[in-house]
Specification:
alpha+beta; about 20% helix; disordered C terminus; binds zinc ion
């Protein structure tokens, strides 16, 4: 018997994990997941959009319109940031991040992923 040849690629595997992670989000409007992988194809962090650790999903707003402080925007952390914060405690330089939604400019360029030199977005 020979081995299977129709197995999924690494990219499909890690994107699948990002999509699965998105299903953990409590956000009623947008669910995003992210998976960070090192150069040896080892998963080093996963996350999804949600409130910071310690903040109740039931006490903070999930609205997306109206008074700013009455919406989710000042409170919810994006999946990319959560994946970085949840990493296993290594230097993320040279890692790749797979996201279920194209990263916003804040995650991609200014604060989160852009500061992790060598990261590659897929
Ligand atoms: Zn973002």
């Amino acid at each position: 018997m020979i081995r299977r040849n129709d197995y999924i690629s690494w990219d499909e595997y890690f994107m699948g994990i990002a999509l699965l992670s998105a299903k953990r989000s409590k956000d009623p409007r947008t669910q995003v997941g992210a998976c960070i992988v090192n150069s040896r194809n080892k998963i080093v962090g996963v996350g999804y959009n949600g409130l910071p650790i310690g903040c109740s999903d039931d006490e903070f707003p999930w609205e997306y319109e109206g008074d700013f402080l009455g919406t989710k925007y000042p409170f919810v952390c994006h999946a990319e940031l959560n994946a970085i914060l949840n990493n296993i405690g290594i230097d993320l330089e040279g890692c790749r991040i797979y996201t279920a939604l194209f990263p916003c400019n804040e995650c991609e360029g200014n604060n989160t992923i852009g500061n992790k030199r060598g990261s590659v977005l897929i």
